[in-house]
Predict the structure.
Amino acid sequence: MASAPICIDDILDRPEMGRYRWNIYIVCGLLMALEGYDAYIVSNLAPIVARGLNIPIPSMGFIFTAQAAGMALGFYTVPILADRIGRRGIMLIGAAAFGVLTIISAMVTTMESFAFVRFLGFFALGGTWPNIIALASEFMPESRRSRLLTWLFISHGMGASFAGFVGPTFVALHSWQSAFWAGGIAMLIFVPFMARVLPESIRYLVNRDGSDPRVGQILQRVDPGLAWSSGDTFFTRETKVAGSTVFGLFRDGRAVMTMLLWLGMGSSLYVTATLTAWLPSYLHVLGGLETSTATRMSAFSALGSISGPVMLTYLMKRFGTPLALCLTCAGAFITMMGISLVAEFPALGWGIGVCFGLLVVGAQAGLNSLVASSYPTSIRSTGIGWAGGVGRLTSMIGPGVGGAILAAQLSPAIISFVVAGPMILAFIAMLAFHLLGISKLMPSTAQAETGKA
């Protein structure tokens, strides 16, 4: 007699993570940090890279735009494939490709070739990044998912901040190219470790074939006490969205939710990408600071990134995720307007660096977490990818605008407002998300983390 089907939700939603799930979470976090370093080493060393390529600093906007275009293309295309064929293989291939292309970017000598290699690298990153989030989220208990995902996104920002701390050291000891070699080699060393630790998405396997024995093997690692046999079948209570995964983002009442998430992500990523690309240069040019000092001020965002999840977690518990993000977005706008005052108060640059990590990167992490919690497994990679893709389109515009207004020698106040102003739109999107009660559309108990606790 066949045994009754086993529901994977009853095991995965237990609040105790256990060693196996913590290992998956830590590996995903380390991968995010490595990608953060490799992704933003260019912006942290922008004035130095510009000199190495014999181009003016504002021309780096072309390279930043190429990176954003590659990432947008990766976000829009690869996650759709991952929802069809699985996440693990795409993550491994994408991480390896990004590592190789990071190394190659240290070998080219012209702006055009450098931009092309970075475009390809960010295409690989754009295909990998949503799958990291989707895989990690599917192994987390829903009662803790939003908070854990927020910390996961922060690791990406900390990797970027680490690039700011050590980048000038690589330059002083050898060259700017050595900073790229270090990041690319570290990524390639990490890929075999990923292959050993990371499983395929268990929810993807169940949706594809409930009798796949890999499901039982993975579940037994999550819960060593689980008894199962090769003839068992598994199921999930999570709704499977039929048809096109892209159209699924707008079906079953999700259209308004999706549009608000896109508005929030697009606005926030414009600011995040622009400041990540140009903050060291703004502090250097507008504030009259030394390049190394400006870079290290920007790298102080790591301190904000460390404390950001603590603050955001408290606000989420107190007010719910959308209102917590409202407060964070408002704070990000106000503090980043302080860039206009650095020339008069140079020490303010350290505080701006911290607030960049605490509020700008923190808001972006919270928005990413909200997106990842908003869609069922069958369209989760697509939901993350397309929301991120919208953001990457605006982040293509942001660095280009940031370079143009710097080249036009506009006043620091105008530059600050053009860069930070879209955080007001992100604030409005999250306020509407809260007032319209959209949390009820989110899968299962994920609703609990978005409403007021």
